[in-house]
Amino acid sequence: MPLTPERIEEKLRERFPDVAFERQQGEAVRDFTLYLPADALVDVCTYLRDERECSFTMLSWMGGADYLPRVPRFECVYSLLSIPHAARFTLKVRVPEENPRVPTVTGVWPTANWHEREAYDFYGITFTGHPDLTRILLPEDWVGWPLRKDSPLGYEEVAFTHNTPGRMKPSPALKKLAPKKVRYRAQ
Amino acid sequence: MTDPKAPQPTPFRTLAQARPAPPTNDLIVPTGPLSDEDRFREELEKGILFTTIESVVNWARANAIWPLGFGLACCAIEMMAIAGPRFDVSRFGAEVFRGSPRQADLMIVAGRVSIKMAPVLRQLYDQMPDPKWVIAMGACSSCGGVFNNYAILQGVDKIVPVDVYVPGCPPRPEGLIHGIMKLQEKILSSKIELGPIPRKKKRVTRPQAGPGAA
Amino acid sequence: MTLNMGPQHPSTHGVLRVALELDGENVVACKPVIGYLHTGMEKQAEYKTYTQSIPQTDRMDYLSPMSNNLALCLAAEKLLGVTVPERVQAIRVLLTELTRISAHCVWLGTHAIDIGALTVFWYCFREREKVLSIYDMVSGARMTASYFRVGGLAMDIPEGFLERCEKFVREMPKHIDEYESLLTKNPIWLARTKGVAPLSAADAIAWGVTGPSLRGSRVRWDLRQAEPYSGYETYDFEVPMGTNGDAYDRFQVRVAEMRQSTRIAEQAIARVRKLGEKGEYRLRDFKYVLPPREEVKTSMEALIHHFKIVAHGFFPPVGEAYQAIEAPKGELGFYFVSDGSARPWRMKVRSPSFVNLQALPVMVQGKLVADVIAAIGSIDIVLGEIDR
């Protein structure tokens, strides 16, 4: 029997009856996605990994997203892959802005280590229990969370002659750098 | 050499051109052994050139540029392609890509320079011994290129002085070789300082940071 | 002793920094430090339309640019809910497989150079130049092609393209034999790669490794056969697998993959010939895809659609989609969240090298320092993709 997402949802609701699962609605939501609260995350992930009928042994990727005007602001998306059943499943956790903390899943899948560091680096979401939560892609002393919607792109105004006063002509000293004519032997 | 008989302003002159031998009368066949001076002159004519130290030093520097292996991103692959079989850069003496900056004299900044990499780049530039040159290969190292955001340095000339800018994204290997040839022209025409000999205040034409620097 | 394999190093395939704790020559701890090529592509994608992000993807895994283009286009097409015509799929498969061959050529050349076999570099780059001139012919650029568009191709294939591809595909197996004759039974190569940097299947899955590194550890998982996209289910090819999960097995898997790619490319060329050397190269859905030029000049509706798409971009429905492909390095996926406007709300790239590199400490724990070089080479990483 192929492993369908509906079957997985059924098993999850049966195993965790007091966890508030919520299916993501939307006609263009192309992958079956379940929302769950952050405190149930590690247990659900351990179950999905160990249960023989599911065997989601690989965490394909984990990412953050910022939906700024919406409350709660952030989301963490976990995309799971089951190689024996050739199935994918997506879990999402809503993360509020005032207290952006999510339990880490590095205990379930070691690969989550760098994915969580990246989400921390880009959004400032703290993963409690993470062995080494430091910036991974930006310099260690960078201040700010660049991928948040209220962080600027950091665009540098391109310097044309019309918007840079005092640069209409190149400086006369540049003429000295022009190489004198040399007959290179290949010419 | 294309045409040895055409008058070319080369920096090298043979002894025969410098001090032409006195005219001999062809009808008179020399009898007896050559004099010492003539024999000496004959030997000398075979292997002595007159030139300036500046020309020789510049010629040596231009034709044996050792680049530092400093490929950052996509332009690095085109830089590897010029070391490849089709665009052979060892014709220009530049096929030894040194691993250590202390042994290199050309830094080809091939690729985008991120803000995390910029101090590393400056340190590598400082570790290179004089004389050294920098080629900014590609659009990203010349001016930031496609990426104008928080993470990319808008032009490597903000931190190191650049001699040649090679545009392209990535520049074709022929473009980079053209850039290397332009650098060779620049080296051949540069002035060098000769040690402690007191000279008029003539500054070495080191490349200044161009108008792109802030 | 702490040793720093700094961001500038001939063997790190880009700007990777590895902080090594050594005890003599044995590695006690190994920590890769990345971020020296971080380009902010995901942030920049939120300010550009989908089509404007396609050239950015070229610069991610710059050894296999058309694969990245394909991944973005497929993810956007999944979000839109459209499928491209069969001829377009065949051309995409053909170019993607040629890309795979060229990416593996570079991998082999640089991996061999790290280990010391310099000759292989020149052999491999000779073949790569042929693929690059095919790219040049079809898109105008040698490396950063940006040839695929959401809903089709940028322009139709030129004349002589199929002949050029056929010639390449006919000559390639001989060249692969050359590489194998140089390396496969070479005692120095065997000594440097057999038993080096082993990765067990359970470790590989736990660390999220995909691609030839996973198949080298004897796990049968190839997205082209497990979750087919772009018509791959109709092509006949094998998925090579290794036995021990060491560097030698990964080398064999990739060389065998090059052979399988020539096989797929042959079938794709035959299919394109059957469907027409000139024909439709875009989906006929003008809400999302540019209409053909002739119709823009004659039909008012096509003109308006053309104007809208060029001036604003196309407007996908509100939703999200994730689509992964089997890139030469592993599972490359794009996750788009759309809010209905022409610019994506979030673009997340699941890059294979980012995940595969995490397994490096596992592979070299307790081994010699020279094995670290062989391991980095055999994982096949590209820093542009790791740092995005």
Task: Describe the overall structure.
The complex is a heterotrimer of chains A (187), B (214) and C (388). Chain A is an alpha/beta fold and 187 residues long. Chain A contains three helices and eight strands; from the N terminus they run αβββαββββαβ. Chain A has helices at 5-15, 41-50, 112-123; strands spanning 22-23, 28-29, 33-36, 58-66, 74-82, 87-95, 101-103, 126-128. In chain A, helix 3 links the parallel strand 7 (101-103) and strand 8 (126-128). The longest helix of chain A is centred in the middle third of the chain and has 12 residues, at 112-123. The termini of chain A are far apart. The mean pLDDT of chain A is 86. In chain B, helix 3 runs antiparallel to helix 7 (173-188) and helix 4 packs across helix 7. Chain B is elongated, with a radius of gyration of 24 Å. Chain B has a four-stranded parallel β-sheet with strand order 3-4-5-6. A two-stranded antiparallel ribbon of chain B has the order 1-2. Chain C has 17 helices and eight strands. Chain C has a three-stranded antiparallel β-sheet. Chain C starts with a strand and ends with a helix. Chains in contact: A-B, A-C, B-C. The A-C interface holds A 26-31, 33, 57-61, 63, 65-67, 77, 79, 83, 86, 88, 90, 109-111, 113-115, 122, 135-139, 146-147, 153-154 and C 34-35, 38, 40, 42-44, 47, 78-79, 81, 205-208, 219, 221, 226-227, 316-322, 324, 331, 333, 335, 337-338, 345-346, 348, 350, 354-355, 358, 387-388. Strand 2 (28-29) of chain A pairs parallel with strand 6 (319-327) of chain C, so a sheet runs across the interface.
Q: Count the beta strands of chain C.
A: 8
Low-confidence stretches of chain A: none
**Average of per-residue pLDDT values of chain A:** 86
General shape of chain C:
globular
From the alpha carbons, calculate the radius of gyration of chain A and give it in angstroms: 25 Å
Q: Structural class of the secondary structure composition of chain C? A: mainly alpha
How much strand content do the residues of chain C show? 5-15%
Helix content of chain A: 10-25%
How would you sum up the major sheet of chain C? 3 strands, antiparallel
- The SSE string of chain C, one letter per element, is EEEHHHHHEEHHHHHHHHEEEHHHH
